Predict the structure.
Amino acid sequence: MHSFQPLRGRASKRAMAVAAALCLASLTPAAALAANGPGATVGAIRWDAWVGDTSTNGVIAGSHIGLEVEGALGPNQFHDRIPFYGVETSTSSVLVRQLTQGQMDADIAYAKRAGLNYWAFCYYADGSGMDIARNLYQASTQREGLNFTLVLGPGSIPTPTLVTEMAKPHFQKVLNGRPLLYLFGFSADSYAASYVAEVRAAAATAGLPNPYIVVMNPTSSTAASIASTVGADAVSAYADSPINGAAYSQVISQNSANWNNHKATGHKVVPWVTAGWDNRPRALYPQSFVSPTPPTNAWAQQATAAEVATNLQNALTWNQNFAATADANTVIMYAWNEFDEGGWLTPTLSKGTDRVDALSNTLTYASSSNWDAGQTARGAFDGDPSTNWQAASGFANQWVEIDFGKDSTFSQATISEYGARTTGYRIEYLNGSTWKTAYTGTGIGASSTVTFPAVTGRKARLYFTSGIDTPIIYEASLNATPNVSANLALNRSYTASSQWDASQGAAKAFDNDPNTNWQGSGANIAGTWLEVDFGVRKPFNTATMSEFGDRTGGYRIEYWAGPTVGWTTAYTGTTIGASKTVTFPTVNASKARIYWTSGTYTPIIYEASFGLN
């Protein structure tokens, strides 16, 4: 909740109630891409040792790393970093265990709320004990919109397993489909060139684009040496590690300086953002998996949420300023959940969602200025009429903006403000790199709904041209609908389990003509199928179908997962009828089909299409 204090000309509770009654719910995206000039993607590292008394024998023989890290966080001085799923059992003990699907689903929701595009899992093999969170993520029905990648140590994963992971549709991609992969580089001889060559060759054999491989080491010369030796695409770092209780402002400076140092090596760079560094739990309570034990001065002052957001904004700006060097246009953050090492973004028991909300303000919302930290752009789009955005001073040329995450089409806006301050404004949309006007208005008042010819853009904003004092916006909502890609099934190859006659072949279901159709034949409806072959692997997450009558009683949308796995279910439905559009987690495949499980009479499909929303 955003505080209204101090707020010049603060609205009464009655005025807020009126605004609440009149405002439409804001269509803020649950999982938006980064709201910054070039649309950079942002990821966060996960180190998932929060497994309690689960055996981690697969990492270190005889170990229980989950108990060790809980012990290190036991002293009361470290309880301010306990995550939302943790329990403070006493002033000297905690339980920090992420072992359930519900906990993971909540974690995913927070990452989406922050505006993150992906998690980078430190990879531990299945059955190792430290694979639980990764597998809970993979099993989640909520992960759509939050991709993943891996951070690998030397020899940590067999190449066939790695390629299987990279082939998943939600594996993070950069540069038009290249799988993004991080290598943790301990020293110049951490990896052999043959390993990277093997990974690239295996990816090519599997039909994947060339992986974009990033070496992580904070020392620029070492990172460059490893990258040159193995033929990596870019350099980065896991984190920077300040000492002696340095102010977080020094961490910000250290990050920025090291991005430039890495750039000076001549390699491409993925900038990293260190959200914190305080290794004292591991220093004071040595861990079996850490050698040597960190020194007791290995820490910096804890960052405020605003400082973490500033550091991220610096990285996004750096990507803009050095676009040729930051060609992948991504940023990696340390870390989502390195609680015992001092780097976290996860909501905590002590500070709640402060860091998540600060990132959201940076990645999803923006404004020309803010009156104070409690009245930021987020307050104008959060669907809560008791919060607001207020500009710092003046009226003309102030603006408040939302990033939809992808091109979206809208034709209506509903806005509510405090008082009747506005006398001139525009609703604008970002078309490519140019702001264009969708609507020009005068007053707003308690509630104003305006319509205009539909426009399409990734971002929208209210741009104020005149008014009294400073603009105060309770809520701004747009009827924005993300654009769906063109029908992927057009002009492809088609087949079916059967056809009624030569005039009702499989192609008739995909010809964009509602006057033609495909009809199956035979007495058994179950097992009938209709298939499109895209020719190459394509991502899709929607299917639209129309049939004659209401013949279908049960069906599946399936995709081809390769010769080893075969056909895999993306969606299970019952009826189709005159028109049915269904959505499902994005899959990536060269073929798709509708597979009937039940119905009355043989299926007749007028049109079927597949797209990416």
